[in-house]
Amino acid sequence: MKFNSKILILCGGQGKRMGSVTTKIPKPLAKIGEYSILHRKILNYSNQGYNNFIIAVGYKGDVIIDYITKLTLPIDIKIEFSDAGENAGILDRINFARSLFDESIIITYGDTFTNIDLIDFINKHNNSDNLVTIVTAPFRSPFGLVDISSENKVTSFIEKPVLKYYIGYAILNKKLFVDIPKKIIKAEDGNGLISLYNMLILQNKLGSYYFDGLDVTFNTEAELVEAEERIIKFFTIKET
User: Fold this and answer.
1) Which of 129, 153, 172, 205 is deepest in the core (most CB within 10 A)?
2) What are the tens digits of pLDDT across the range 37-78?
């Protein structure tokens, strides 16, 4: 089955903590086995019936465009590119690409891999009144968390609680961009997106989709090795 929803893959970051890996290639082209993580993401979404992609480039965008153009992909996959410039923040990249999508867009970071059920994710969003639905995953803190009063009295102590964190996946309704101040859209890095989410919290229009499946990302060379092990293991189990 094929679906019309487009997926916007954010691939504009510089990946400075990746050391020598990102001096030659942007982080989404880092290899996970025989495929780059970007290639794996595209195939994963295509296998779920989603074949329309927008890739928002920035740092070494020409390298990504050249790479994608030369890939042998299934014939029904359609890819468009959006380039807001190397210094654009995340929200600015999304806004710059909005002429390429319709009522809503699925966004995902180019250096993450999950096995999220996109059909369920989209249905949950569409059946809500949220302008944005973000994906959250569980994370057990390795520390005991403490709250302290202004008098330095401990008011609570929780040993290694399970927290929820944002994993870089979301669905955004296009109409929300009409009311976002320009200074928020143009904010650096992820600051604009954070400001938008805080605006929507005040409006009770930011929803959460809980996900506890495979969630892999990397920010350093060591984490890339671990990510490769986890993803290869996932596909090995899947194929057996």
Assistant:
1) 172
2) 999 999 999 999 999 999 999 988 999 999 999 999 999 999
Q: Please report, for the domain that includes residue 61, its CATH number.
A: 3.90.550.10
Indicate whether 142 belongs to any domain: no
146 within a domain of the structure (yes/no)? no
* 159 found inside a domain: no
pTM metric for this prediction: 0.90
**Number of compact structural domains in the chain:** 1
Locate 174 and state its tokens.
């296009």
| Rounded-to-integer distance, Cα 11 and Cα 155, Å | 43
Task: Give me the domain span that covers residue 71.
Answer: 3-136+165-239
Band (pLDDT 50/70/90 cuts) for residue 16 is: low
